[in-house]
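Reference record
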Amino acid sequence: MSEVLTVHEQSRVVPTRPALWWPGVALSAGGAIAASLVAGAARAAGAPLEVAGEAIPLFAFAQLAFIFSLLGVVLAAACRRYSRRPVGVFLRMTFALVVLSFIPDLLTPDIDAASRVALICSHIAVAAVVIPGLEARLRQAS
């Protein structure tokens, strides 16, 4: 007498979320390029881009924009993971952080007005590239 054993595997459907890390790195690179373009255009227009007599190198704009944009990607990932409304939380936090990023540009004493405007415009350019892209990825996940 032979027995037949039937095993039923339960399959679990795991919803897939759109990737955030690689698109975030690409967006960060785009933000770094945007910051460099703004700084280059400002320098070409005559803004000295100096702090206390020291010129700010163009690669510093790209480097800092890339690093802080990657922190924005981490913030987006944290919002997606821990928040019930990740898009709204992400947008409020990034808006506040962009506004706060203006404070050093406005309060550092040895910067002329043209350099201040260029620095603030570079913050806005990076935000204009990175934030909408990350927001779109978060909306796809919702």
